[in-house]
Amino acid sequence: MVVVVITARVLPEKAEEYQRELRDLIPKMKAMEPGMLVYEVGRSRDEPNIYRHIELYRDDKAMDEHRANEFVNAKRATMFACIDGGYAGYDVKFHDTF
Questions:
Q1: What are the pLDDT tens digits along the chain (98 aa)?
Q2: All structural domains of the chain
Q3: Structure pTM?
Q4: Sheet of strand 36-43: strand arrangement
């Protein structure tokens, strides 16, 4: 399985919009991507502008399908506008389970 951990620093004035987009995105994404086993987002208690996305995919193919999903890609553009630094403000780390 593939674990993806994303850290995003959200602009304070965009936090509500970011959360709204995620609340719309996550259930739809889970319904259309059976290879996505987990997709959860948490907001830091200590740093309220920091959000961490935890993603778990069955395999690389499922992760690639997620990355190619047109609905998700359309949402990403709106979400990146909420991030300090846009896409460059996303810190993405890939892990393999063992």
A1: 999 999 999 999 999 999 999 999 999 999 999 999 999 999 999 999 999 999 999 999 999 999 999 999 998 889 999 999 988 889 999 999 99
A2: 2-96 (3.30.70.100)
A3: 0.91
A4: 36-43, 50-57, 2-9, 90-96
